[in-house]
Structures are given as C-alpha cells and as structure tokens.
Amino acid sequence: MLLKSRKPSENGGIGSRIFDFCNVLFMLCLAFITLYPMYNIFIVSISSAEHIYAGTVNFLPKGINFDAYRMVFKNDSIWRSFGNSILYTTVGTAINVVCSAMCAYPLSRKDFYGRGFFTLFVAVTMFISGGMIPSYLVVNQLRLINTMWAIVLPGAISTYNMIIMRTFFQNLPVSLQESAYLDGANDITILFKVVLPLSMPIIATMTLFYAVGHWNSYFNAMIYLNSKSKFPLQVLLREIVVAGNMADESADLTSNINIIAINFKYAVIVITVVPILIVYPFLQKHFTKGVMIGAIKG
Amino acid sequence: MPSQRSASPTVQSRQNQPKSLPKPLREIIRCKYLYLIFLIPFIYYIVFQYWPMYGILISFQDYNVVKGISGSPWVGFKHFEKFLFDRYFWTLVRNTLLINVYNLLWGFPAPILLAILLNELRSERFKKVIQNISYLPHFISTVVVCGMLVNFLSSDGMVNQIIKLFGGESIQFLMYPQYFRTIYVASGVWQSVGWNSIIYLAALTGIDAEMFEAALIDGANRWHRIRYITLPSIAPTISIMLILNLGRLMNLGHEKILLLYNGSTYETADVISTYVYRRGLLGNDFSYATAVNLFQAVIGVILVSVSNQISKKVGETSLW
C-alpha cells in the first residue's frame, strides 16, 4: 500500500507517461482479444443466415432470432448430454474431494506411522504413470467400460491437488485436534468434525478445480463410453462443432431458412460455456487462491 | 514444507499399548484409524495408478486381451525396435519436440511479461479487471476452444472474411501442415497466458515496497526498477517454472491435437501421444502403442532429471 501512494510521485518523466499509455492500450487489446471470440460466437448464434453469409455480423447481432436456441432446446440428445455432464460432474467431484481429503489427512499427520513411505508411494505417480493403453486395459478388465464409473473413478485423486490439501492440513493449528482427542474422539471423527470444518477455503477451491475439470473434459468420456445416450456435453459438442457431424439435426436446419448450421453450432457452444460464465465471477477468487497455495508450497 | 507441529494428537494413547508387541505392530495399532482413513486412497492408487504401471509389461509382449499378461508370449524389445527403425519415428519425435519448443518459446515468457506489465499499472481496479478477464480462457474447455478455431479458420470463417476484406484469398488453415504449429501455439498462449501469470503476480506481491522507495530516491526510472528489482525478485519462480517446463518437453498432451489435426496435417501435427492413441485405441495394437508410450515416458523422466541437475549446478533452485 505504501508502494501505491508512492507511485504518483515519480510521475514526472515523459517516457514514463508514454509507457503508461502504451501499457494501458496493450491491456485493452488483450482484453479485446480474450473476449471478442466468445462475444462473436454469441452474436453469430442469434443473427440471421443472410447477414452471416454477407459477413456483416461483426460487432452487433443482425436479424436477431432465437431459432437456433429453440432448436437446441428441442434437441433430446443435447438435453441428455447436459444431464449426463451434470451427473458426472457432481458424482465425480464428490468422489474427488472426499478421496483427496482422506488421502491428504493421514499424510499431513506427523505421527502417521509410515508417512514417509506412503508420501513417496503417492508422489511417484506424479512422475511415472502407466500411460494411456495400460490404464484403458485396467478399466476394461474392471468391466467399467461404458459406465459412469469409468469417468469418475480413474481420476479420483489428483496427486497435485491432494498435496496442496495436505499442505493446508499441516498448517492448521494442532491444538484443536489435540483437545478433541482428549475428549475421546478418534481420528475419523477428528477429520470430519474438526479438520474439515476448518478447511472450508481449501475444500471450496478443490471443489471448483475438480468440477471445472469434469465439466470440461472429453477424452476419457470419448474413449470409455460408446453409447450416445451416455455422452457428456463435451463429447457431443466435439461431434457437432469440431467434426461437424450433424446428421440428426439436418432436417431441422433445412426446414428453417432463418438459421444455418453455424447458428446451431454456436448456440451449442454458448449453452456449454454459460454455466461456467455464470459461476466464474463469484468464484474466481477461490480459483486463484488455489494456485497461490500451490505456488507457496513449490 | 515441514510443519511446526510438535505434540501429536495421539500422544495420549501411546502409553496404553501393551509393551510386549513389536514396535511396527504397536505403531500400526496406534494409527489404526488413520490407516482406516487411508485405506480407500491406498486402494485407488494401487488399482488406477500402480496396476497400469504393471501393465507396461505388455510392451515386451505380444499382448492378447483374452490371454492376459500372464498368458501372452514375451517378445523382448521387438516393438521398440520396430518403432525406432520406423521412418515415421523421426517425424513423430520432430513434431513432438518442435511443437513443445515453440510452445515454450512463446508460452513461457508471455505470462512473465504480462505479470510485469500488470504490476506496472497504476490503477488497482483496472488491474483487477484485466486480470479477471485474462484468466477466463483457462476455464473454457478444450473442445470449445477447438470448436471456435475450426469455425473461425474455416474457408468462410471470421479470419478468412477479414483476409477477403483486404483482397486476399481465403485459405483453409487447418488443412495445410505449415499453419498447424502456429495455430496450436497461438491458441495455447491465448488459453493460458493469464492463468499462468498468477504465480508470478503472487511472487511480485511479495516484493518489499521499501526497495522501490529506495530505488526512487536513488533516481531509478521505470526500466531500472523492472530490471533490477522486479525481475530479480521473480527469478527463482521463473527458474522453477522453466525446469518444470523443460522436463515436460516430450510430454505433449494429445487432447487438443486430436481435435485439431486431420490426415492432411499429420506431417507436422502428429505427435507421439496422438500416435499412441491411434495405434493403441483405434488400431487395437496394444503392445506396440504401450512400447511407444514407454519410450516417450523414459525420455520424459530423463529430461526432468537432467534439467533439475542443470538448475542445481547453475542456481540454487531445484525440485528435489
């Protein structure tokens, strides 16, 4: 804060002022480059076909209509995928957070017999892993292919996140745990009744990290799921937007002169991104906090 | 970081244990609830981390799903030899390295520069707003980013409309191998520059304000301040991040490439991990794909330890 009040005092130099001007200009360009692609997606999705063809939809939507969204909301497979994504994200995140806490807590305890060995046991997996094919074969042997469990179990613990959590637990005041112990509580009670309630900031951060990860991931779902009714939104999005595979929708598209394939594609993108954009402003503080905790550790 | 905790919650129970048992057993009984908590994570690591590691053995076999690892015939280094003497080997290694090197060259300095420039902004509010905007792409999924790229770069997409506006010819960028790396790296910087700057901004907030004041009194200008105070104070963070990134030179993610590449761009776009995916999961050539993956992993581990050694020699920072 002292620094802030000091800054104006060296305002004098003309070079310094030019620098400030260019810096602000640069930042505005950066903000534009970051936001414009998303904005463009939105305005194109609600513009009419003739204006899109003419290439005049640049900064404002033209010939506004919501036919593409009507089509998206009418589409059963998109609804189903949306539901699947919510299901996988909820179940997956719950498993992630509980398992990570259960792994992090014993490792955070100095008196955990074999702590060194078990820390090594989990840390090794950050540098060595079986890789794509052996992991696939394990999931296959466990008969999890084409079930939700193939999505939520193989990544149940992110070792990196778990270590951030462990660091947080280690820095909690030990006196509360000790007094709970003297009151006859065992370690399980202490974890759930004392440690976790004190760890809400880190739990919130981890929940967000894991949830965004689940919502945005496509690869595991793509390789482990084979029936379309189980696809999460991202896999469906890949088919529609990236691969341009719209056999199911083509009948609707030809019957409506107002919209073309791109309206529909962009509308699907918008409804995928919107859930994140809604929560982002409220939660971004927690996101950055997680990175900070991780950084301090490193 | 070791904690400062001295007494443990379990000191109390230690006295209650019978003295006759051997020490390890006594200790395990003392920690029985902790072991109970640790059981599920332990099972997870065994099943989903260590079991696949055991599965790497199939790269030395002609693996057959029905016979399993115990029943499949051993073939030694057959698959490794086949890969190393394949003409495609060099294409894959070159692509993997080049995309990574370009990624490092552009993607590594960009967040450092952004952090320094953000730190120079006078208005705290403006800085906050820009920061929050710059983090946003990190939360957009790979599929959406690639979907935007595919559509913006298509023959009648946004980019080509701009080119046509200036009288140029429309180009189908994703169909030509010479554009692939640029597209991949540029979009990667777009996705990550803001998010990756957080770690440097965190280091910058730790700088003592008195240093700047002293520098001001000594007549240091903007550039001097950046050069002699800001940069040195984030240097340790920079070198740690550099080691981490150098160690990852061979481990290129396949998720984004799988969405962007196609048969006509394999020449520059196909990397080891996408090749593993195609040969292994699409072609069911499990043993060969695992061997290729193992080759990549071994090089990766070597790179991490070498870059760690170098940084130990050069500076005082190291990962372990």
Number of helices of chain B: 17
- Which structural class fits the helix and strand makeup of chain B? mainly alpha
Poorly predicted segments of chain B: 1-15
Stated plainly, the CATH topology of the largest domain in chain A is called MetI-like fold
CATH class term of the largest domain in chain A: Mainly Alpha
The helix fraction of chain A, in percent, is over 70%
By CATH, the topology of the largest domain in chain B is MetI-like fold
Q: Which class do the helix and strand fractions of chain A yield?
A: mainly alpha
Shape of chain B: globular
Number of domains of chain B: 2
Order of helices and strands of chain A: HHHHHHHHHHHHHHHH
Report the oligomer: heterodimer
What is the makeup of the main sheet of chain B?
none
Largest interface: A-B, 109 and 103 residues
Describe this structure in words.
The complex is a heterodimer of chains A (298) and B (320). Chain A is an all-alpha fold. Chain A has 16 helices and no strands. Chain A has helices at residues 2-6, 14-45, 49-54, 67-74, 76-108, 115-127, 132-141, 149-152, 159-170, 174-182, 187-198, 200-216, 219-224, 233-242, 250-255, 261-297. Chain A is globular and about 75 Å long. With 320 residues, chain B is an all-alpha fold. Chain B is built from 17 helices and no strands. Chain B has helices at 11-14, 23-30, 32-55, 68-71, 78-84, 88-107, 109-120, 124-135, 142-152, 158-165, 177-205, 209-217, 222-247, 255-260, 266-269, 272-282, 286-314. The longest helix of chain B has 29 residues, at 177-205. The chains are: A mainly alpha (298), B mainly alpha (320). At the A-B interface, helix 1, helix 2, helix 5, helix 6 and helix 7 of A face helix 2, helix 3, helix 7, helix 8 and helix 9 of B.
